[in-house]
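queue> pop job 88
queue> type: inverse folding (structure -> sequence)
queue> payload:
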């Protein structure tokens, strides 16, 4: 990967011998490995057995989970936050595991629409919840730095599963609690 970054830097007309660029291919490769580390993770490793019995059947929400991802179309960042809610049916997942699930999928080349669905379906699979709701709000550098260059645009996506999709009152409660 380091050599590929060196080729890109040369292709844009820069001099790799310039002091500021001498180690850039190595740093860029290291950064890319970090930004895409979700490919090296599995849901079993991320959850790591942190499922606990619970009598709770009330909505659990973790909101404002920061996320950083890269659009698969331009490989430019999109940055935002995820709100995740679920209604347990006998077990709950460790609180930090929800944020780790968000990170695992965000640290892959992505589109926001798919990221939202992947998080919701995974929370559903892991917890066997009665329902799951996920909303992601993000700003996309591919819209801000190039193309239409709209600095104040943001995108919101949602995925509602189970009772979050079927029951308007559950969906409304979730939406009001994340505001």
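queue> result:
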């Amino acid at each position: 990967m380091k050599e590929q970054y060196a080729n890109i830097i040369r292709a844009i007309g820069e001099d790799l011998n310039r002091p500021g660029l001498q180690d850039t291919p190595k740093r860029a490769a290291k950064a890319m490995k970090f930004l895409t580390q979700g490919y090296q993770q599995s849901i079993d490793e991320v959850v790591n057995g942190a499922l606990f019995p619970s009598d709770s059947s009330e909505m659990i929400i973790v909101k404002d989970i920061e996320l950083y991802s890269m659009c698969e179309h331009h490989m430019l960042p999109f940055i935002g936050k995820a709100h995740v809610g679920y209604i347990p049916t006998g077990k709950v997942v460790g609180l930090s595991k929800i944020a780790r699930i968000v990170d695992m999928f965000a640290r892959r080349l992505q589109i926001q629409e798919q990221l939202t669905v992947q998080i919701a379906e995974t929370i559903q699979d892991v917890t066997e919840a009665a329902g799951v709701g996920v909303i992601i709000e993000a700003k996309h550098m591919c819209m801000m730095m190039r193309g239409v260059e709209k600095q104040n645009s943001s995108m919101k996506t949602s995925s509602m599963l189970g009772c979050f999709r079927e029951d308007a009152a559950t969906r409304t409660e979730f939406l009001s609690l994340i505001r």
